[in-house]
Amino acid sequence: DFEGASHVALSEGLAGAAPPEVMTWELHGSIIGTRPETWSAGLLKALGIPPEQLSPEGYLRQYDAVIERLYPSLRPMPGAVELVQRFAALGVRMAIATSSQRHAFDKKMAHQPELLGPMAVVVTGDDPDVARGKPAPDIFLEAARRLGADPAECVVFEDAPAGVRAGRDAGAFTVAIPDARFGCSGDFSLAHRVLWSLEEWLAELPS
How many CB atoms lie within 10 A of CB 136? Predict the structure, then answer.
């Protein structure tokens, strides 16, 4: 449940500039899937917090301090581990394409070896081969290139509208798994399919 922990960090990271309750799920939902330098500046602007009170860089430092404390408590999305294991058993090569910076990704995934281990490729948002962040398709195109796969033969699983657009624009079959806590704040209409759990996709795979 990364977004649950992230919501705590986004709220507590505003310390000294705004009370934590101003960070609503709707506001949080507007930035998922985007790069840290983008969402930090965007949230502060949306909340009317001037840089002399809290800069985007300062917000990121405070966010990181909170989220790193929460990494050990994170649990995978229902069905995620089983889906990765099934794909691996079927010989499907997999990649993670995340907007997270590499240092943060490594710290987070150190607690999730069952998800990270089967991955053939990892591409992070600060990778020098990724010029633009989501919703641009660059990160998925690069992941497909490193897999040696045609993007049209790839399936992208995404929980963020920005990621759904990136997957579609990359030419991949794109599956959205919205987080119900964000309500109706996200537009997932571009997805080829919308699931409410990865377990739905798992049930359709051969055993």
Answer: 16
- Rounded Cα distance between 192 and 172, Å, is 9
What tens digit of pLDDT does each residue of 152-196 get? 999 999 999 999 999 999 999 999 999 888 866 678 999 999 999
- Enumerate the β-bridge partners of residue 186: none
Burial label, 204 (beta-carbon count in 10 A; 0-12, 13-18, 19+): exposed
* Distance between CA atoms of residues 170 and 167, nearest Å: 5
Q: CA 191 to CA 168: how far, in whole Å?
A: 7
- Amino acid identity at 174: T
Residue carrying structure tokens 């399936």: 155
Q: What is the pLDDT of residues 43-54, one digit of tens each?
A: 999 999 999 999
* Element of type H or E holding 176: strand 173-176
